[in-house]
Amino acid sequence: MTGGHLQIVVCGADPAAEVSKLVRAAQSQSWTAAVTATPSAMNFIEPQSLESLTGHPVRSTYQSSPGTRRSLPATDALVIAPATYNSINKIALGLADNYAMTSVAELIGRQVPTVIVPFVNAALAARAPFRHAVANLRDEGVRVLLGPDDQWEPHPPGSGNEQQKAFPWTVAFDTAAQLAQEPRTAATGQL
Ligand SMILES: Cc1cc2nc3c(=O)[nH]c(=O)nc-3n(C[C@H](O)[C@H](O)[C@H](O)COP(=O)(O)O)c2cc1C
């Protein structure tokens, strides 16, 4: 698919500071992009530079700036990256306790092709709630980039800085763009 609109949701982990790499990957393929941040993620990003880059305000609350539409724009794909332990567990449970989580809940419900790129250490990833969350999201049709097949593994506790350098921004976009190209299943009613 050439061109489309990518919705990006960033969570509160260090790679969030580099989310412009995902925006640029999308723009290089003639996609537009907009960034939504969890409240925690606002401590990791530079909203103004992202707004200049995307041409869209960074949304984190229900409050919209003047001229901003309240409803979600038409979205061809959703990438949640970096996705924290906290948000992944919440998304799997369907919790909508902030603007970002509400947007995610609705976009997944609308069958928008969705890619999640976790950034979690191995201790958190070993927890049963997290493993169940990943399995449940995959069952729901969400693409979670995690594990040997995706060449993206949880890092040992304390080694996040090294792992951040390898964060798969381009793979995340390419995967989302590929999903956006695939016909939806008949069950979604969107064939
Ligand atoms: C400096 C810093 C780095 C963090 N890194 C991570 C991380 O890599 N992965 C993670 O799951 N949580 C990390 N956290 C914890 C999350 O920010 C915390 O769980 C927060 O509640 C996540 O909120 P969110 O999921 O709404 O973004 C970090 C927190 C801080 C302060």
TrEMBL record:
Ranges where the Flavoprotein domain occurs: 5-123
Name by which UniProt lists this protein: Flavoprotein
SUPFAM superfamilies: Homo-oligomeric flavin-containing Cys decarboxylases, HFCD
GO MF term (any one): catalytic activity
UniProt source species: Micromonospora krabiensis
InterPro entries with a match to the protein in the record: Flavin_trans-like, Flavoprotein
